[in-house]
Automatic annotation (TrEMBL):
It comes from Coregonus suidteri. One of its GO terms (cellular component) is cytoplasm. This is Protein kinase domain-containing protein. Residues 88-378 form the Protein kinase domain. SMART domains: S_TKc (SM00220). Residues 58-80 have a biased composition (Basic and acidic residues). Transmembrane segments: none annotated.
């Protein structure tokens, strides 16, 4: 019976292949339109630059500019790039199903690159397509700009790369991206989504696109209106879920700090992305791994610099952040959770919180992310 079913399935797939062998013609048509629109956009940018340099544009300058804005090709370009992604999704589904030969039959369609990145890479995107505003207050380490993409406010993070670094960035972003997309069916993945990755065509930069959450970092939220005890539980539960997912995928974050944790609606926490050009060792020893007087670097890493960070190191950073949320004025130093069995410089902690911290801020035997989520501190709030 089983053999009969397999033969029937094979026959059906063969008939489908013979009667409806797909081609990427629709994809090629979209790509052609994108090339045309990109050419129009470049000419428009040259034209606008010439007009701005002119000393006297004329009395109808504002009305002419409004007319040009209405005819800008960016919106049509964005729609076509969205259509290009849909075509790639269709072809990828076919290649993963009845037509695995598609990437080999049509190498010029570059289906394999799309599939290998989990749909993250957009080769049609480029920096000059975006009408972006620099975010100078956040651009101390790398160029950050805020723009709009397909109706959503986003941030573009630029990383300087050479050919070797480009391959590493592609590998690391894909791994981070897949970790989240594989859990999209869950209501709260706890991981910041990566929307796109593309490489500059006229500059040596890799651009990572992420959603823009105004004042959404944990640091900004605490500076504006600190989370309540109940809100802190909900937010940090989401962060622990994100760490659990990353660790299950073999990823050590090594960059967990208040600027790299995001808060949505004061009850949803997410682990942010990190510098994809850096190794975990480089990320862990970054100067940003501190909050107030508290070092977020695990003791074992400080004692032996160059030691590769582990998931346990992420949980130490997590414990420090959890403590900081309830004691932002703390001016001491956290090296060992043994001190947390006592009152720390007048800081009063709720019993279940103190018990959890005593199992995170220790030199050995820290809880895992899964064990943290199962702790009474989180279970009592459910």
């Amino acid at each position: 019976m089983e053999k009969y079913l397999l033969n029937t399935k094979f026959k059906g797939e063969m008939l489908q292949w013979l009667n409806a062998s797909p081609t990427p013609d629709s994809l090629f048509s979209v790509k052609k339109r994108i090339r045309s629109l990109r050419s129009q956009l470049r000419w428009r940018q040259v034209e606008e630059a010439s007009l701005e340099e002119a000393e006297d544009i004329g009395p109808n300058r504002d009305s002419e500019r409004e007319g040009r804005d209405r005819m800008r090709p960016e919106h049509t370009l964005s729609r076509n790039i969205s259509q290009e992604r849909k075509e790639y999704m269709k072809l990828s589904a076919l290649a993963e199903g009845c037509f695995p030969e598609l990437p080999q039959l049509f190498p010029e369609a570059d289906i394999r690159s799309y599939m290998s990145s989990g749909g993250l890479v957009f080769k049609s995107l480029d920096r000059d397509m975006f009408d972006a505003e620099p975010m100078r207050e956040l651009s101390g380490r790398r160029p950050l700009v805020c723009t709009e993409f397909q109706g959503q406010r986003v941030i573009l993070k630029g990383y300087t790369v050479n050919e070797e670094a480009e391959a590493r960035v592609l590998e690391r972003t894909t791994q981070f991206h897949r970790t989240r997309t594989q859990r999209q069916s869950q209501p709260d993945t706890g991981i910041l989504p990566l929307l796109a990755l593309f490489f500059g065509k006229s500059d040596p930069l890799a651009y990572v696109m992420v959603p823009y959450f105004p004042n959404g970092s944990l640091w900004a939220v605490q500076a504006a209106k600190p989370l309540t005890a109940t809100e802190s539980v909900k937010v940090m539960r989401g962060v622990a879920r994100g760490l659990q997912a990353l660790h299950a995928a073999g990823i050590t974050h090594a960059s967990l700090n208040p600027n790299n944790v995001f808060v949505l609606h004061r009850h949803q926490g997410m682990v942010g992305d990190y510098d994809f050009t850096k190794t975990p060792v480089q990320r862990a020893m970054d100067s940003g791994m501190v909050t107030g007087s508290i070092s977020l670097v695990a003791p074992e890493l400080r004692q032996a610099q160059g030691t590769p960070p582990t998931p346990a190191c992420d949980l130490y950073s997590y414990g420090c952040l959890l403590f900081w949320l309830h004691a932002q004025g703390f001016n001491g130093d956290l090296d060992s959770g043994r001190r947390l069995a006592l009152d720390i410089s007048g800081v009063k902690l709720e019993a279940k919180l103190q018990a959890l911290l005593s199992k995170l801020l220790v030199c050995v035997g820290r809880l895992t992310a899964a064990e943290t989520l199962a702790d009474d501190y989180f279970l009592s709030d459910q």
